[in-house]
Fold this sequence. Notes:
It is a single chain. By secondary structure, the protein is an alpha+beta fold. The chain is built from five helices and ten strands; from the N terminus they run βββαβαββαββββαα. The strands form four sheets. It has a four-stranded antiparallel sheet, with no helix packed on it. The protein has a two-stranded antiparallel sheet with strand order 5-6. It has a two-stranded antiparallel sheet with strand order 7-10. Helix 4 packs antiparallel against helix 5. It starts with 13 loop residues before the first strand and ends in a 5-residue tail after the last helix. The mean pLDDT is 95.
Amino acid sequence: MGWDALEQWGDDVVRIERLTGGVANDVWTVRVNGRLAVARLGARSDADLAWETELLRYLDRAGLTVPVPIPTTDGRLFADGVVVMTYMEGVPPETEADWRRVAETLRQLHRFTQGWPQRPGWRSSTDLLHAETGTKVDLGAMPAEGVARCRAAWARLVGRRTCVVHGDANNRGNARMTEDRVALIDWDEAHVDVPDLDLVLPHNAAGLGDDTLDVAAQASAAWEAAVCWDDAYAVRRLAEVRAV
């Protein structure tokens, strides 16, 4: 059905401009009921989209600034692969102080979502010590030596508590800042995992100790290598994971 599904948000919905940065989805600014919003078209399952949209509504009620799903005219939070969300004003983080504010916002996310169920079809990093696949991860496509290095990095996380992680928080394009709040956007990679994976930030803004930062940085590099394999970025990230 594609973008024709936008009609389910009303007769006056208009696509305005394609947004850059998305890989798995087609993302546009749109105008819905006279206000600016963001619409995303992708191939995720209904169960996957239900998890994401319910999470965003929960976080909004909890007081975090996140894109809130705008329902269709009959009350659904998504339709035929399309999600429409509120537009987040602001600018990306630049300074160390900005990134410290992002870190505190991420820690709020982690506190609010302890015990949250896993995103349908996803695996956590420690799940991949025994599983081969999960969403975009297929360890069978990676060289065996690389898989061994990734699993050695993830093994150091065993026993840690889990919660929802944003999944791409060190990408400055995924935060929008104003003087009084930090908004986290683009929740397409969010899933349940160890929270330190979100806290490998520029300037070590989360203030992780040396050992904690090393464990998190290695596990994060391994995760990004596995999720993106085998483009140039994934190869570069795998090179950061120490040999076993």
